[in-house]
């Protein structure tokens, strides 16, 4: 009886073209030709070492740390602004198979995510804290991943303000010209969830 | 996590018993919350907690609802069979109006009425619509004086909690054209139909109730009986001490409606009001507010903003498209992908914090991968006024929103297990309250487990001894090799998690002794 509340079919998403927006540290337009506002893009990744090797030198590690920071800053700006002002576009930032745990509620896959964000009241986020770490390739099978942690306050329409913590795993999809980051996993919790 | 064989942790019987007790607490705490699901996090588990306030937006199955009706929701206009006669109609015919008026009031006083409106409901057959609503509504309701006015369908219900439940149905039902049906709820005066049945003593009761707004016992809207609204409860300290204010506020729907005292003389105004009367002309039964407390806003959220539904408003999609029906999903306890993983993670945490709290954190070396990372943050700037108990953590706090210097950013991220453990060892001695832990397992692949722990701990030494702090810590762990084993011999069939570790700590703060806003540990916990 319930319909799938998806406003953004796969076709819509891929065909969607809007003017560029970033002030972030990115270079030229991607080879795909135009990209949406709701994408997190950084310069291309450094060449990976062979699969299975560890991040051997501290220099490499530093590079990963810097890159993680860059992705994190870019991401957080876009994510929360999209969440607050362009909610319908938010799922563009997620992988198709991404999962969200929202105060203990599991939301899995883009359709469910679309539906979820559609039913969530409008929001006003204020991020006060941001930290990030590169994730070791042993954990990700060389899929470049960044752990992002944020905290701050949020006011959902019709509800009191809450402190929140949120974690993301962001994975990189590389092209020769840039790197596009998308959310693989997302965990959100009010700090005072038990009184909610 | 393997421990060096010579490691003497100073176990006593007491410690062992404490561990066992902690484990019991875990079992009790978590066993009711998680159910086995497929690893890979495609949830088909039913994580319902008590009650019906489950999140409908997720792809989880809806709870089974009480559905007294046999009629298909798509059965429209006039095609009803006799045996499908609705519960609704039977109710209306059987219950005398006087008894219905008494509603749920045990002492027989007047209930409070609410008008339920379905915009553009004129399209829908009455029985079909009511069935549809009842199927989705968590409580049975008795619609009174169902009618169409202009383009809309309306009826009345006599109970605030029912009104709230109906409000929740808004946006969760669809018609045959797959269009969402919205439901608006407003307080209303006593419906005309009911009016006619009033006996004189009931009129007197109404007058009494209205003229004595201070008398909470006669007031119909019983806050205690309303469904649990987080927004309301946040202000419950002030509300509990002044129920009159919140009673009055709850009837004051729209800020532009000037509340008026309904005197006995105005009762006559209600007589003869036709169903087609403009909504805006109806004065809700309400009392004057002597002062508009800010708590009103939290009550107002119970009711959507009043829309003008008279015929002069051209029907537009905007009437249906408001946020009135949106609610936050219920907050639930920690999520685990499966029972097995839950056990794994909890065991790991138990052991981790046992060492962490033991006074010697060098034992954690075996928990960390060679290339692990660690960082921590506190959500205060050094310039802000922050509790002094947090000041010692500022120097290690990594917040890249504030720290822009790449060198400093690099320094604050600890790399390699040696550096990490040294860094942890420099932090104050702690006692973590395992019973306060809430764990979300939020990413799980073949190679990695990612989980976040929310909990409380106490500093047990130093200047801030006794401070209670809340923390959130995220771990990324990889399965250990088969040669590593957990202390408690579960290495036979489960590979111990080897903490590759991106642990991150931050300390949303509580004042020592003040746990407001943070989860309280269970009273029997001894950590």
TrEMBL record, chain A:
CDD domains associated with the record: NTF2
Domain NTF2: 71-190
Keywords, alphabetical: Nucleus, Protein transport, Transport
GO cellular component: nuclear RNA export factor complex; perinuclear region of cytoplasm
Signal peptide annotation: none
KW Metal-binding (keyword) present: no
Main location: nucleus
Cell compartment(s), UniProt: Nucleus
One of the protein's GO biological processes: nucleocytoplasmic transport
Entries under InterPro entries matching the protein: NTF2 (IPR045875), NTF2-like_dom_sf (IPR032710), NTF2_dom (IPR002075), Nuclear_transport_factor_2_euk (IPR018222)
Record bears the keyword Transport: yes
Domain of life: Eukaryota
Region (Disordered): 1-39
PANTHER family: NUCLEAR TRANSPORT FACTOR 2
Protein name per its UniProtKB record: NXT2 isoform 2
Organism: Pongo abelii (Sumatran orangutan)
Automatic annotation (TrEMBL), chain B:
Keyword Cytoplasm part of the UniProt annotation: yes
GO terms classed as biological process: poly(A)+ mRNA export from nucleus
Location (main, coarse): cytoplasm
Gene Ontology CC: one annotated term: nuclear RNA export factor complex
InterPro entries: LRR_dom_sf, NTF2-like_dom_sf, NTF2_dom, Nuclear_transport_factor_2_euk, Nucleotide-bd_a/b_plait_sf, NXF1/2/3/5-like_LRR, NXF_fam, RBD_domain_sf
The entry's keywords: Cytoplasm, mRNA transport, Nucleus, RNA-binding, Transport
Gene Ontology terms, MF aspect: RNA binding
Domain of life: Eukaryota
SUPFAM superfamilies given in the database record: NTF2-like, RNA-binding domain, RBD
Location of the NTF2 domain: 344-493
Family: Belongs to the NXF family.
Protein name: Nuclear RNA export factor 3
Species, as recorded: Pongo abelii
Gene that this polypeptide is encoded by: NXF3
